[in-house]
Every structure is written in C-alpha cells, then in structure tokens.
Design a protein that fits this description.
Blueprint: E1 6-14, H1 18-27, E2 33-36, H2 45-48, E3 53-54, H3 63-73, H4 80-87, H5 90-100, E4 114-115, E5 125-126, H6 132-146, E6 150-153, E7 157-163, E8 176-182, E9 188-198, H7 219-227, E10 231-232, E11 237-244, H8 256-260, E12 264-266, H9 286-300, E13 305-308, H10 313-320, H11 322-330, E14 340-349, E15 352-354, E16 366-368, E17 373-374, H12 387-404, H13 428-445, H14 452-473, H15 480-501, E18 525-526
Parallel strand pairs: 1-2, 1-9, 2-6, 9-16, 15-17
Antiparallel strand pairs: 3-5, 4-5, 7-8, 8-9, 10-15, 10-18, 11-14, 12-13, 13-14
Bound molecules: flavin-adenine dinucleotide and succinic acid.
Succinic acid binds at residues 50-51, 255-257, 348, 384-385, 387.
Length: 531
Amino acid sequence: MGDHSIQHFDYLILGSGAAGLLAAKRLADHGRVAIVNKGDFSESNTYQAQGGIAGATNVADSIESHIADTIHAGAGLCHEDVVNQIISSGSRIIQELIDLGTPFDTEATGTLHLTREGGHSQRRVAHSKDATGRAIGETLLQHVQQHPNITCLRRHTAVDLITSRRLGRHSGKNSCLGAYLLDPDGSIITISAAHTVVATGGTGKVYMYTSNPHAATGDGVAMAWRAGCTVMNLELMQFHPTCLYHASSPTILLTEALRGEGAHLVDSQGRRFAFDYDKRGELAPRDIVARAIDHEMKKHGQDCMFLDVRPLGEETIINYFPNIHERLMAIGLDMREQPIPVVPAAHYMCGGVKADVAGRTSVEELYVIGEAACTGLHGANRLASNSLLECLVMAEFCADAIIKTNTKPQDTTLPVWDDSGTVPETERVQIKQNWDEIRATMSNYVGIVRSNERLRRARRRLNLIREEIASYYWQYPISRDLIELRNLSLVADLIVRSAQMRHESRGLHYSTNYPETAATAEDTLLTPDQL
Ligand code: FAD
Ligand code: SIN
C-alpha cells in the first residue's frame, strides 16, 4: 500500500484548461485553491483551440445576431435563457482577455481582426493566428502561477470525487467533500475542499479519430455520474468536418476559419460538393458539413475528401495560419500547392453533466464547468467558437456563486484511500485491448450516422468490456491508464444509452431509423438512480 496523505484547500479545481484556470484565478482572492491537471498544462482541449472565441465586438455586429446564429445552429434544443446570458457576455470576456494580456490579432487600425466560421452570419471570431487556445491558456496560466494562494498539482489524476453519500453520511442531501488524486509517484492523496469544481474538458478519446488530445477521456463526466449527477444530451457528439487524413501523422485540425477565409471542400476530382447539401456551402453549420463529407466518402467509396486552401493565397496562409502550415509542411503537405486530405473526427461534447450557467449540479458543493458541463447553450449542435466563450463565462459565474455562499470549513475527517489487497499489474495487454475495443466500437457503431441495430450492437459490446474492466479495476494498484479506461467505458455506455433514448434526428444526432425531427425538442437526461 502506498503512502496516502490528506491535504486541505478551500477550493479544489479539477482541470486546468480555460475554464479551470479562470475559475482558479478568480477564487484565489478568497481562499486557498488547488488546481489539478493530469499531464502538462498544454495537455488540454484549450491549448489546441485554433479558430478563436466568438463575441459581437464589431459595430456592424450585434448580440442579437450572435444569439440568433447560436439558436439556429442548435436545431431547436438551445436553452434560450442560457444562450442570452452567455452570448451577451461575449465582448466583455474578450475585453477581459485583452486586459489580461492575450495577444489577439489586430487590424492595422488596432481593432480586432475577426475571422468567420460556419453558421456565423458575421465575422465575429477573435483569434490569435491559428493558435487562439494556447494564447488564452498561456495568458491565464501566467496569472495563476503568480498567485500565492494557488497550488498547481501537475501530473495528478483525479480518481473519484468524495461525497457524503459515498461515505455513508447521507443526511438528506448529497454533498461533495473533495476528491482522491493519483500523484506522480503512484500514491493516492485525499484532498478535502469546501467546494469542488470539475473542469476536466471533453471526451473525444472515446472515438478512434478525434481532434482532442490524450487527456480528453471524459473523466469529469464519469466522476460526476458516480457522485450522483445527472448527465444531459451525451449523444450529441460534434464531429469536426476537416481533420487531416494521413496514415502516419496524428490528427491535425484544419480550422474552420480556413473555410471562413475562402477554402473549398472538394472531392478527388476537384469538384466542390458542399452546395449540394446546403445553400451556405462550406460555411453551413458543422453537423451539415460533416454529414456531407461522410456521405460523399460513402457514395464514392473513398477514405477522405479534400480541403483546397489555395484560394486564400500565400500571404493569408502564412500570416493567419502559420502553425497549421508548419505542421503540414513537416509531413510533406503544402497547402499553398495542393488540396489537403480531410475526414470528420470527434471534436466536441455538446452534452455533459447537467449544470446551470454557474456550474451548479444536483450534488451540493460540486460544480461542473466548461466542456464537461451541459448548460443548454449549444443545443443539438454547437456554433463554432462558442465553447471557449462558454468556458470563461461559466468560470466567472461559478467563482462568483461560490464566493457568495457561506463557505463551510473543509471536512478534516475524510478517510484515506485503501488499496490493500491489490497485486502488481502483470497484464497490461488487457488495458490496451479494452481501450482499442471501446474506440473501435464507438467509431463504427456510434459515429455520424446511427441506427437502432448499430446502437444495440455497441451496447452489447460495451457491457462485456465494462464487465471485464470491473473484474480487474480493484485488483491492481491504480494507474492513469486504468482510471481513464474505466471512465471512457462508462462515458461510452452513457453516450449509447442517450442515443437510444432519442427517437428522432436532430442536429448532431442522425438515425436512419428516425430520420425526421420531432415536433417538440427535448433534452436527453440520465440520472444514476434510474439505472
Ligand atoms: P480543457 O481545456 O480540455 O481542459 C481539461 C483539463 O482537465 C486538462 O487540464 C486536463 O489535464 C484536466 N483533466 C482531465 N481529466 C482529469 C483528471 N482525471 N484529473 C485531473 N485533471 C484532469 N473552441 C472554441 O471556442 N474555439 C476554437 O477555436 C476551438 N478550437 C478547437 C480546436 C481543437 C483541436 C479542439 C480539440 C477543440 C477546440 N475548441 C474550440 C473547443 C474548446 O477548445 C474546448 O471546448 C475548451 O477549450 C474546453 O475547455 P475546458 O477548460 O472545459 O477543458
Ligand atoms: C476550428 O477552429 O475549426 C474549431 C473551432 C471550434 O471548435 O469552435
């Protein structure tokens, strides 16, 4: 058994992407904060964000127009009160980021250079070249690292939340008391905290092909579910239309801003096909463009379609998309000269843990913010570049809500982790096999186009995989791989169950058995007590 210790903080924040960093910064003036990530700071969806952050900053634009585009993309499922609150904060949040030092691109006049993405009727996406997330993340990180009240716990993986119910101290309400973390030496630390904020990001790794980095294994959704939270609309996985298709390179996202600036989608004969599917062509919302590519690939029996960036010209490519250009050149692809092979890949989880705009969940003192949460902003299909905005608005609202509550003292009597009886792991092959099986099952049966039979098959396979994982999870000392695998299998199962509950096609969920959109739009809700 390892050396398992206990530490106390006022606020525990799991995840150091945009949501977690801003919440930490804001809470640190009011108490001691621990902010945790399972790798380096760069291992987050935030650091990968390319296109930018949407907000009506231009005089020709308006909050009303941004709201209308968000609701239109959301295919009838957006919660309008949430849309109003978040979207109306857009220009304020962008100004705050500027004040903190974020290097957004500007015009010669000094005003923001705004790019355009699918579903937006205006140029309204503020960006820092094609690496906006890194610019925002690094800016926030500098402030967080300088704050004396913040302890950064890098390479610590949250294993589970500690709740009063889990400890059998259930006196009417279930509240969160902290979390268990796996530290880099393999010991489990108990963190007790008056308030816990889950900001663990998305779950793209549940699919074989994804734009997400390795950390996106849905840990927060799985932990919150085990703690008793309701999850919402998990079947609504957004596939980004244009990720690089290449045999030997990791996935590289080709930002939608490339299409916003004039890049074309073409088939292997160079024919533009996007207008066959929607009058907005390449700039239709993502669900439509991703399905169009998927349909063309299946129709022609081809492995990919192509993004022709040449219409932008060399100057725009080099000035605004230098990182993508450099990464493609490193594998011998020159966007200035040739169309780039692309496929849709899992990109963004529109569903998540049901939360309000301040991240409040059904468990007391437990908040979920950012991509791990589902507020209803995105409805059935997220409008591009609305997610960084949601992360930051939620982080502020969450910190403000926490500060306003009477903070109770941390619970100093939490039990330390007990791993007596575990034996050294000898069969790593089991973990690898189960990882691969989950991702293949999800990609083949729960992708862009679904059917009742595919979902049934996926459910059967996932049941078996989850049984196998359950049989060895408590046998071995815990590792990051094992924690992620267990979470991935749970989230995959919840996605399939949610998909089976939606008897219609809407936004990102398309079923061949239910091709029509139902007259009334309803969220898919699952609570642990139901199962
Ligand atoms: P993340 O930034 O993903 O951070 C999650 C954090 O949680 C990480 O620090 C991770 O280490 C930590 N973590 C996870 N599990 C654990 C655990 N068990 N224990 C401890 N720590 C844990 N959105 C836009 O608005 N505009 C864009 O241009 C844009 N481009 C994108 C491009 C790409 C390639 C991708 C993948 C996404 C893009 N998005 C974009 C989406 C957006 O980046 C994300 O939705 C957003 O950054 C999520 O932020 P977050 O803070 O919720 O989570
Ligand atoms: C992109 O740059 O295409 C991604 C934008 C987003 O996911 O919001």
